[in-house]
Amino acid sequence: MEALFEVQYALDTFYLLLSGTLVMWMAAGFTMLEAGLVRSKNTVEILAKNIGLYSIACVMYMLVGYNIMYGESASSIIPGIGFLISGDNTVADVLAGGEDAPVYSNIADFFFQVVFVATAMSIISGAVAERMKLWSFFLFAVVLTGFIYPIQGYWSWGEGFLDELGYADYAGSGIVHMAGASAALAAVLLLGPRKGKYGPDGKARAIPGANLPLATLGVFILWMGWFGFNGGSELKVSDVESANTVALVFANTNLAAAAGVIAALITARLMFGKADLTMGLNGALAGLVAITAGPDTPSLLLATGIGAVGGVIVVFSIVLLDKMRIDDPVGAISVHGVVGIWGLLAVLFSNDEASLVGQLAGIGAIFGFVFVASLIVWFLIKVTMGIRVDEEVEYQGMDLEECGLEAYPEFTGAAGSGK
Questions:
Q1: What is the pLDDT of residues 110-126, one digit of tens each?
Q2: Most exposed: 22, 144, 259, 287, by fewest CB within 10 Å?
C-alpha cells in the first residue's frame, strides 16, 4: 500500500508538471499571435512585452501572489498576506493516507498555478498593443500578478466567498480569462484607440497585421497548450475516475475549439461576404475560453455547441466594440471577456452543482474588482510616468524607440536603400 501511495503521488506530480509545461507553451502562442496581428514596426516591442510579462509573473507569484491566493486567510473575502512559498511534502506526509494526505508536490502546484497568472497577464498585452509604453506595462504586470489576480483567485480557487456561494469555474473562464480581459478593458479605455483606427465619421478602419501565418501558428500553439490548461485542472490522473475525466476534458476542449472556428467563419461569411481568417482564429480561442469553465461535465455534443456559440458571440462582440470605438488590435476583450461570461453561464447546462446565483456572483465580483482595481492602477501610472507613447513614436513604430531593434531589418534596409 505504501508503494502504491508513492507511485500515485509521483504520477500525479508528473502530470501536473507536464500540464504546466503545456500551459507555459501558451506564452509562445500569445506571443506569435500578437506578433502576427500587429504591424511589423511594433513586432520587437510585442516580443519583449511577452517574455517580460511571463518572467515578472513567475517572480511576483513566487514572492507574494501564491501565498495570497492559497495561504492563511483573514476572512472569506480578505485573504492573508505571506511571502515566499513553503517547502514540499515529506514521505511521511504522503504515506499518512486519508483525505488530508497530499496527492502531488506543493512545488508542482505552484508551478502549475504560476503559468495561469502569466496567461491572465498575456491577455492584456494584445489589447494595448501598438501604443502603450513598455515599462508602464511591466509596472502594471507587477501589481496584477502579485496582488490583483491572486486576490480574486482566492475568492474561488482559494476557498473564499465565491467558493462558498457555489461558483463553478473548472479551469478559469472567469478567474483567468475574464479577469485578464477586465484589466485590459480598463487599460484600453484610458489609452484610447490607435491613431488612424477610426475615421472622422467614427467608422473603424482595418489595420492589417504583418504576418498572418505567424498569427495562425500562434493559435495552433494556444490550442495545444489548452489541453494542459483544462486537462491539468483535474490536478490528478492516477485513478480511474480522474483518468476518465481527463479524457473527457481533452476531447471537449478540442471539439469546442473546432466548433468555434467553424461557427466564426460561417458568421463572418454571412456578415462580411468573406471567410475572415482573423475571425476564424478568434473563433478557435473563443471556443476554448467558452469550454474552460466546465469541460468536465458536458457531453461531446454539448461541448461542441458551447464552443460554436462562443465562435458566433466573438464575431458580434468584435464588431460591436469597434462601433463603440474600443480599439483592441487582437480581439482579446471579446475573446476572453465577453466569451468568458458565456462560458461561465454555459456551466449551468451540465453541472448540477452550479447555480445561477453563484455564477452571476462570480461574474460580478471578478469583473467589478479587477476592472476597478486595474483602472486605479492604470490611472496612477498614467499620471506619474504615462502609459501612452507620443504620436511620433506611434507613427514611426515602437520597436526602435522602446527596444532599439527592428524585427525585419533586412526588409526595411532594402527599402530604405532603394534596392
A1: 999 999 999 999 999 99
A2: 22
Which candidate, 355, 272, 273, 350, places its Cα nearest to that of 306?
350
In angstroms, rounded to a whole number, what is the distance separating the alpha carbons of residues 125 and 192? 15
CATH class of 2-416: mainly alpha
Instruction: Report the candidate in 2, 15, 88 with the shortest Cα–Cα distance to residue 239.
Output: 15
**pLDDT of 6:** 87
CA distance 244 to 101: 22
CA distance 16 to 109: 7
Domain locations in the chain as residue ranges: 2-416
Give Rg (Cα) of the chain: 21
Nearest to 16 by CA among 316, 235, 257: 235
Coil, strand or helix: which one is 402? helix
Q: Measuring CA to CA, how many Å separate 201 from each of 18, 42, 196, 204, 298?
A: 51, 27, 12, 9, 45
User: How far is residue 124's CA from residue 37's CA, in Å, rounded to a whole number?
Assistant: 14
Nearest to 288 by CA among 204, 171, 183, 396: 171
Regions in the chain scoring below 70 on pLDDT: 1-3, 97-98, 411-419
